[in-house]
Specification:
There is one protein chain. The protein is α/β, with parallel strands linked by helices. It is about 25% helix and about 25% strand. It contains 11 helices and 19 strands. The protein has a 6-stranded parallel sheet with strand order 12-13-14-17-18-19. It has a 5-stranded mixed sheet with strand order 1-5-8-9-3, with no helix packed on it. Helix 2 runs parallel beside helix 11 and helix 9 packs across helix 10. The longest helix has 15 residues.
Length: about 400
């Protein structure tokens, strides 16, 4: 994890005493008075909107700060200002904090602080900030478009029950809205959250809380987890795992950056040697498929710098190996709405080899997605009920 260190002079007297208040109501631009900084702030904001607050300072003490966020896509800036509002390094005033994030998944920022002279003798004190990004108010129900009407007709004719297994609770989507969507649609909903060290839900207690909240919305709605750490099956205990109907994984996080954070492939700007990278990536995919997952999402994904080389890099031998592993392990191959992956050659080969398919939207907000790709795959591959994955009974 990337850690930014700030040696700050003359900070809040609250910190000096080590006391913090309870979780506070937050409005952008809040200035926290001496002795009144909360242990935790929970903030909702619109996409692209920064979170700003400030801490008052005391002129006679200094503190060392560490700031750590749980995602590559979150930036934290600290700026010290004097009483006259001008940027300063010495005069007493306030510490301005600005947090920006490009993601909908909750961002977690932890502020750690202590006196510089305490060094390792005293524990760091913490203040935690949770930032939720909410989408614009949208009707979660699927509209009666020509595509959706045709998809409904095809599924009815073929006896297929469609379930959106990749339905994230984020960006304003809630278990309650997911349930509302399915009451007006032939597509059943699920409710799924991300799990991992760089995500808000990162321990067993939070996973159980999420499962309970989702089942309260509708006890019959499937509840799942998207796992992002490759040792997740060692971290999630058996009792917690039993609370979920399915476990979804993709291969879009591979290795670590020099900062220690996860390497998110959709943020990769350059790949100097595509063939060498592909060998490592293929091994990464096969390792994931050896984990006890239910669904392989966005299969055969490639980062933007080498996506044009898909047909060369994803050889038939590699595709067959991935599909065979999915069949061996009982893992569904996802057909994702609005995704360029997998390409038709992979889907055709998967059908020929006898793989099972699942469907997902990978939403960022409550708004419905274009389901054209689902319709095309069902008709083109001539899918029937025996081709569709269903989870084992709990």
């Amino acid at each position: 994890m990337k850690v930014c260190r700030f040696a700050m002079l003359a900070l809040a007297a609250m910190i000096l005493s080590g006391t913090c208040g309870a979780a506070a109501e937050f409005k952008n631009g809040t200035a926290f008075a001496l002795g009144n900084v909360p242990k935790e702030l929970v903030v909702e904001r619109r996409a692209g909107e920064p979170v700003r607050f400030s801490l008052e300072e005391n002129p006679s003490t200094g503190f060392k700060w560490e700031v750590e966020s749980n995602t590559n896509e979150c930036e934290v800036a600290l700026e010290r200002r004097g009483r006259d509002g001008k940027t300063t390094c010495g005069a007493p005033g306030k510490l301005d904090v600005t947090v920006t994030s490009r993601i909908y998944t909750p961002a977690r920022v932890e502020f750690r602080y202590r006196r510089p002279w305490e060094k390792d003798a005293a524990p760091w004190k913490t203040m935690r900030l949770i930032v939720y990004t909410v989408g614009e108010a949208k009707d979660p129900r699927y509209p009666r478009t020509a595509v959706n009407l045709l998809l409904e007709k095809e599924c009815a004719r073929r006896g297929i029950t469609l379930v959106d297994w990749h339905l994230h609770i984020r960006g304003g989507m809630t278990p309650e809205l997911a349930y509302l969507r399915e009451t007006n649609s032939f597509v059943r909903s699920s409710a799924m959250e991300n799990h991992g060290r760089e995500w808000e839900i990162y321990d067993n207690a939070r996973l159980r809380d999420f499962a309970a909240r989702a089942r309260k919305a509708n006890p019959k709605m499937p509840v799942g987890i998207q796992v992002n750490d490759r040792d997740w099956f060692e971290k999630i205990d058996a009792g917690t795992r039993a609370q979920f109907d399915y476990i979804l994984a993709d291969s879009m996080i591979m290795g670590k950056l020099p900062s220690g954070r996860d390497n998110r492939l959709w943020m990769v700007a350059e790949i100097p040697d595509a063939d060498k990278w592909m060998e490592e990536y293929f091994a990464h995919v096969m390792k994931i498929l050896d984990e006890p997952i239910s669904i392989y999402a966005n299969p055969t994904y490639l980062p933007t710098p080498i996506a044009a080389e898909y047909d060369r890099l994803w050889t038939e031998e590699r595709m067959r190996a991935v599909i065979a592993k999915c069949i061996e392990k009982g893992i569904a191959i996802e057909i994702q709405a609005e995704s360029a992956f997998p390409r038709p050659a992979f889907l055709r080969l998967a059908k020929e080899m006898g793989a099972k398919f699942s469907f997902g939207t990978n939403n960022f907000d409550p708004g419905p997605k274009d389901l054209s790709k689902w319709l095309e795959a069902i008709v083109w591959l001539d899918l029937g009920p025996s081709d569709i994955w269903t989870p084992p009974a709990r």
